[in-house]
Amino acid sequence: MSSPSVVRITRQARPILSSNHAEARRRVLALYRAWCRQIPFIVIDYDVPYTRKQCLEKLRSEFLKNKYITDVRVIDLLIIKGQMELTEVISMWKPIGNLLNHFKDTHNPKPKDFLGKFYAGHE
């Protein structure tokens, strides 16, 4: 059993920015809109080999990855990280390689036919 002081301390954990889910949602949507407004400038400034529409789709998929997070403190930390990343991108502090890592395909299927295996260096 936990002591009453431990229970009291865990109940008194304060939120980082948002006090409830509605406020956290408002902050997430504001961050999403800020990224959407900056994407045309990012495509031009970084000379990204993707269209504005592809960048918007990638942005949406990055935000939807975290849609099942319910803890307000975790949401607030993700908002802070997103704001920091946006600031780095706008200020051109982030190299283009780091920016394009978001577009990297992480799943490389194994080749199944003979030529595919040969080109990949498999037997």
Automatic annotation (TrEMBL):
Pfam families: Complex1_LYR
Domain Complex 1 LYR protein: 26-87
Topology term for the membrane: Peripheral membrane protein
InterPro entries: Complex1_LYR_dom (IPR008011), Complex1_LYR_NDUFA6_LYRM6 (IPR045299), NADH_Ub_cplx-1_asu_su-6 (IPR016488)
Source superkingdom: Eukaryota
Keywords, sorted A to Z: Electron transport, Membrane, Mitochondrion, Mitochondrion inner membrane, Respiratory chain, Transport, Ubiquinone
Entry annotated with the keyword Transport: yes
Any one GO cellular component localisation term in the record: mitochondrial inner membrane
Record localization: Mitochondrion inner membrane
Family stated for the protein in its record: Belongs to the complex I LYR family.
Function text: Accessory subunit of the mitochondrial membrane respiratory chain NADH dehydrogenase (Complex I), that is believed to be not involved in catalysis. Required for proper complex I assembly. Complex I functions in the transfer of electrons from NADH to the respiratory chain. The immediate electron acceptor for the enzyme is believed to be ubiquinone.
Assembly information from the UniProt record: Mammalian complex I is composed of 45 different subunits.
Name of the molecule in the record: NADH dehydrogenase [ubiquinone] 1 alpha subcomplex subunit 6
Organism in which the protein naturally occurs: Vespula squamosa
Highest classification ranks of the organism: Eukaryota, Metazoa, Ecdysozoa, Arthropoda, Hexapoda
